[in-house]
Design brief:
About 40% of the residues lie in helices and about 15% in strands.
Amino acid sequence: MSEIEAIHFASIAIQEESKDSHHLLLKKAKEADVLISFDVNLRFNLWDDHKIYLETIKEFLPYVDVIKVADNELEFLTGTTNVEEALKKDFSNMKVVLYTKGEHGAEVYYKDYKVVTEIPNIKAVDTTGAGDAFAGSFLSKLLNQKDINNITEEELAQMATFATNYASLTTTKIGAISSYLTEEEYNSLI
């Protein structure tokens, strides 16, 4: 664990077959002060019982430092459509909350900061993988911070804007991974 900076997982990874191994990994990671990121990324088709799905997700939330939750996932996860309420009730122990809203941009919460982003003027052709692109690009910038426990509002805004722009640009191509840009490609488009 000493060489690992972060672990990122999604709800698809905590099905019955892999649940115990993920608990073990995340417990050790938490003890080693590894940043743990979770993308809710609901996949109802993989679960026969949605109540058990929700209970399973909630089992893992105490490990999580950074959560990415979409507007169409919030109510299932928290029982509310109000992200501000969910911050107090369900996400209060997390360092960063990434709340994505599709074509309406995103909100990023860190300590007492709230950054709201809007998507750039693009023509989306395929949104597959945009949430993953948002989470991954945000995490890449977060892990490059000198001290992730002491981020300024300006730094948070830069990371959130980068993630929003990056995810938006991936929707201009077909496919998920094939639509991801290098940082050089990104810089040439922004």
